[in-house]
Specification:
Blueprint: H1 9-19, H2 28-35, H3 40-52, E1 72-78, H4 85-93, E2 98-103, E3 114-120, H5 123-137, E4 142-146
Antiparallel strand pairs: 1-3, 1-4, 2-3
């Protein structure tokens, strides 16, 4: 049984803000902090503390790829030597057409451990991008899984009842 994690009222407000629309301004954290009446410094300190305490596991953007014009998208899975996962993933994540890059455990029948979401305007462009990633990392073993249907993109929402 796991221990209950305490989240105070101000942290709950911060979590609610981080789950919503991220402000498209020069200083987004300052704008979010102002919404709840604290400084940007305190806002960021509390976020960093919650990450360190494992109250927040990850933060990320949701790309609505079709809305920005990408018509071909694929999850490209890579078989990367375990000792190179961090290096290769860091390099792949830097590509402007890769929105997600993460590692997963291998299974007996699935040797792939690094996953990249590639966005393009055609399958050919996605193949070209995967080729660029392969050349940049010297990793060739991959499978490209193309999007057939876009599902509604939603995430868990916490502390919304308050």
């Amino acid at each position: 049984m796991s221990e209950a994690i305490e989240v105070d009222a101000l942290d709950r407000k911060i979590i609610r803000l981080l789950q919503g629309q991220f402000p498209i301004v020069a200083e987004p954290y300052k704008a979010l902090a102002a919404e709840i009446g604290i400084s940007e410094e305190e806002f960021l300190q509390r976020v960093e503390r919650m990450i360190a305490e494992k109250k927040i596991r990850k933060m990320g953007a949701v790309l609505r790829h079709r809305e920005v014009g990408f018509t071909s998208n694929c999850l490209c899975v890579w078989n990367v030597p375990d000792v190179r996962v961090d290096e290769v993933a860091r390099r792949m994540a830097q590509h402007e057409r890769v929105s997600h890059c993460y590692d997963r455990s291998r299974t007996a029948d699935w040797p792939y451990n690094v996953y990249t979401m590639i966005h393009g305007f055609s399958r050919e462009e996605c193949e070209k991008i995967a080729g660029e990633l392969a050349a940049a990392t010297n990793i060739e073993d991959r499978v490209m899984l193309y999007t057939k249907k876009e599902w509604k993109k939603t995430s868990m929402q916490y502390f919304m009842e308050e």
